[in-house]
Write a structure and sequence with these properties.
Order of helices and strands of chain A: EH
Shape of chain A: flat
Strand content of chain B: 15-25%
Oligomer: heterodimer
Helix content of chain A: 10-25%
Bound molecules: iron/sulfur cluster
Distance between the termini of chain A: 32 Å
Number of strands of chain A: 1
Number of helices of chain A: 1
Chain lengths: 45, 451
């Protein structure tokens, strides 16, 4: 592509059907905690 | 739904539902003005005519063809495939616990959400017996979850460090029997850090949060001892020692910015220059009438500051002196699954907070609000209705979130803030939303600039 550069191979839909196992760290958006925000969460799968 | 914006010379397009991020040139950006959810194979003639004032017809058609290809591949104006999972969200095992090991604090920070450490309920340290009951409660209610998190929080947890140590020992003694892996974390203001405490923390805690607001004059204005003395000179050397000895284990130096230091990028940079590379400085959330609270009219100033910080981070990254800023960290490839993104924080469902007397609340920010008392770890009473309520709360049950472009990065914000400042968990806290959007815009731009 000449006019567009896509930064990622995101596939939220696919991640939904395989996800939800719950083994990852709890997250807290407020960051007064050690937990991460959702955006920087590591998936443990 | 898409969200497009220009920042630092980049034209960025986020396809909200797939999560794809595109950097496009001006012509593609302008064409998008004429495009919506229902893209046709060819661009509307009237649009071609209008764009013809600025671009060559062939260029317009070729660019449109590229955009259409994204659309056909589900990377532009893709459909929302996650909503259907929202109805399936269930009450999950509890896997994470905030142990308010000390409702007492040796600082008197002006903006403290915990009412200077005691959460408005009187100064109190958690007895070991209660801490053990809490650990038992967590193990009993964690179902098949293997990884369990316990965060020592306060107040100031180092004021009750013997109980912290004994609690860690007790929890470790249960790991084998119940097939659990405990991950401990601690949040401290640093004043009581000593060499042996540093050793213990570095050995046992998988993450540690070290509070510091940045420049000495900023930190020492609000983070003061009960005698009114500043803390910067006491804590910084201790933090440096702790972090130096920590090797690859996680830590954060975290602070708060208020109306006093809307130029907070300078505080982040100061912390980086002190040798820390994991940094979080977040906006204070307070009632708008209070002196230090961030007000709506401060937003443009704060946006500029986030941009300034983003530029500095790009510059340092290129010089190989990079640091992480918590709120700009986004994993575009291997981030959390969509299910996780539907409700973000797990408060009241997978996550609970326990007070020194053993009372259970949905999270540390709900502590002391009687309406949200969920039970007690000693009597083992537990209000499943509240748990159910939070299990079902997600971005599609919140008025503003469902149509918000940032929902899969924000996940509906902080329930406690919504409850406290908007009177309803389902009503997002406006100022926090605007800041979150700006941060994600900056974070995506940093990705664009550093790929
Ligand atoms: S570990 Fe990964 S798949 Fe499992 S819930 Fe967390 S983000 Fe989703
Ligand atoms: S920014 Fe606000 S409206 Fe948007 S998802 Fe977050 S909380 Fe909801
Ligand atoms: S309600 Fe707010 S403070 Fe509590 S866990 Fe959720 S995001 Fe964090």
């Amino acid at each position: 592509m000449k006019h567009i550069k896509t930064l990622n191979k995101a596939d939220l839909k696919g991640s939904a059907s395989k996800g939800g196992c719950g083994e990852c760290q709890a997250s807290c958006q407020s960051a007064c905690k050690t937990s991460c925000t959702v955006a920087n969460q590591k998936c443990e799968k | 739904m898409i969200h497009k914006y220009k920042l630092n010379g980049y034209n960025i397009v986020l396809d909200v539902n797939s999560g794809a991020v595109h950097v496009v040139d001006d012509i593609a950006y302008d064409i998008l003005e004429f495009v919506n959810e229902n893209m046709d194979k060819s661009l509307d003639n009237s649009a071609v005519d209008l764009l013809g004032n600025k671009y060559e017809k062939n260029e317009i058609l070729n660019t449109y063809a590229e955009l259409y290809e994204l659309y056909a591949n589900g990377q532009l104006y893709s459909k929302d495939e996650c909503k259907k999972f929202a109805n399936m969200l269930t009450n999950s095992p509890i896997k994470s616990m905030c142990l308010n090991i000390s409702h007492d604090c040796n600082l008197r920070c002006e903006y403290c959400f915990a009412a200077k450490g005691d959460f408005g309920t009187g100064r109190e340290l958690m007895p070991l017996k209660i801490a053990k009951n809490a650990i038992d409660f967590l193990v009993e209610n964690s179902g098949p979850r293997h990884n369990l998190e316990v965060d020592f929080f306060g107040g100031e947890p180092l004021m009750n460090f013997e109980v912290v140590k004994a609690t860690v020992k007790y929890a470790r003694s249960l790991e084998k029997k119940y097939n659990k892996n405990f991950r401990f974390t601690i949040t401290t203001n640093g004043l009581l850090l000593s060499d042996d405490k540093i050793d213990f923390i570095n050995q046992e805690m998988s993450n540690v949060v070290l509070s510091l607001d940045g420049r000495k004059e900023i930190n020492d204005k609000l983070r003061v001892t009960s005698k009114g003395c500043g803390t910067f000179d006491i804590i910084v050397p201790k933090y440096q020692k702790l972090v130096n000895e920590r090797r690859d284990k996680d830590y954060y130096v975290r602070g708060t910015f208020t109306r006093n230091n809307l130029d907070f990028a300078n505080d982040v940079i100061k912390i980086a220059d002190l040798g820390f590379d994991q940094i979080s400085i977040e906006p204070v959330v307070l009632n708008e009438n209070l002196e230090y609270a961030i007000k709506k009219e401060d937003l443009p100033r704060i946006y500029k500051e986030y941009e300034k910080l983003a530029l500095e981070m790009i510059k340092r990254k290129k010089e190989d002196k990079c640091f992480n800023f918590f709120h700009f960290m986004i994993d575009l490839e291997q981030g959390p699954c969509a299910i996780k993104r539907l409700r973000g924080c797990s408060c009241g469902n997978e996550y609970i907070a326990v007070t020194p007397s053993g009372d259970i609340y949905p999270c540390h920010q709900f502590v002391g609000q009687e309406k949200w008392n969920m039970g007690n770890v000693t009597t083992k009473s537990f209000n499943n209705n509240i748990k159910e309520y939070f299990a079902k709360t997600n971005i599609y049950t919140k008025e503003k979130c469902k149509d918000c472009w940032v929902k899969f990065f924000c996940s509906g914000g902080c329930n406690a803030n919504s409850w406290q400042y908007e009177g309803d968990v389902a009503k997002s806290h406006n100022i926090s939303c605007e800041l979150e959007k700006k941060r994600v815009e900056c974070a995506l731009m940093i990705k664009a600039a550093t790929v």
